[in-house]
Amino acid sequence: xxxxxxxxxxxxxxxxxxxxxxxxxxxxxxxxxxxxxxxxxxxxxxxxxxxxxxxxxxxxxxxxxxxxxxxxxxxxxxxxxxxxxxxxxxxxxxxxxxxxxxxxxxxxxxxxxxxxxxxxxxxxxxxxxxxxxxxxxxxxxxxxxxxxxxxxxxxxxxxxxxxxxxxxxxxxxxxxxxxxxxxxxxxxxxxxxxxxxxxxxxxxxxxxxxxxxxxxxxxxxxxxxxxxxxxxxxxxxxxxxxxxxxxxxxxxxxxxxxxxxxxxxxxxxxxxxxxxxxxxxxxxxxxxxxxxxxxxxxxxxxxxxxxxxxxxxxxxxxxxxxxxxxxxxxxxxxxxxxxxxxxxxx
Length: 346
Description:
It is found in: Golgi apparatus membrane. The chain contains 9 helices and 17 strands. The protein has helices at about 1-30, 85-95, 115-120, 145-160, 175-180, 250-260, 270-275, 295-300, 305-315; strands spanning about 50-55, 70-75, 100-105, 125-130, 165, 175, 190, 195, 200-205, 210-215, 230-235, 265-270, 280, 290, 320-325, 330-335, 335-340. A hairpin with a 2-residue loop joins strand 16 and strand 17 (about 335-340).
């Protein structure tokens, strides 16, 4: 009996020490916090990496008058099959905007060559940041884009003293007129965003030239119930306390509150919020397939080198996995006949 009691005490002590060690470990890596929940309460030691900064604007067709304020267009993104086409489409809008610096913060722990190549091809000034989501949120899509926007905010606060900040997701559609309007923002400007929620639009309500309220299908007990694409901020108004919380649905509101924004500070744009100049468009999610093709064997057929290069590009862009031993068996079609290999075309 005595030996059993000793074993029980030993196990109890071991359990106690294990729990204490876990609590200590979790608190240090940011999984556990005993602070009150607010915009800075969760320890979020994300290892961001500044991948590349280019200040040169090499667009020959754009006149970059220094009389125009620089717009810092912050785009959070993450690796997926749609990433390259989304960024490419957005790039071809931003390439028409004078005095614009594109900041892409990518939710992955490496500096993506794919993203960097897209940025370089635009000839825009740009900043490329690797800003992975904190570990505690790795198993979920929420809250989306916060680590990326926080990383961009940190870079702006450390490197930029004037200009206009705008958060533009990689799947948004933007009218060029919006850039000309937000460039004159004194503190915080706001405007409608189309294709939002149950009302079809999210917008400030303007009365006598001033914002009197908000039209948004999810009030959510928010002081400023607006969409992320529905406001711009003068960087001189960007206080050192400015931050964005990891609270899904409250990212915009808490960020604006952290600026010390008052209703009377808001500047309504888009003809007193009567026009829609930005839309929260969304690309249909594409389930990345795995295709069973042995690229090494195909490389042995010089006459089909172009086709092999296409398959490699498809894989590089993340649109499909090309595997030699598993996946969907592909077919080549010619004259209404299907062949399992390229030999049928020879």
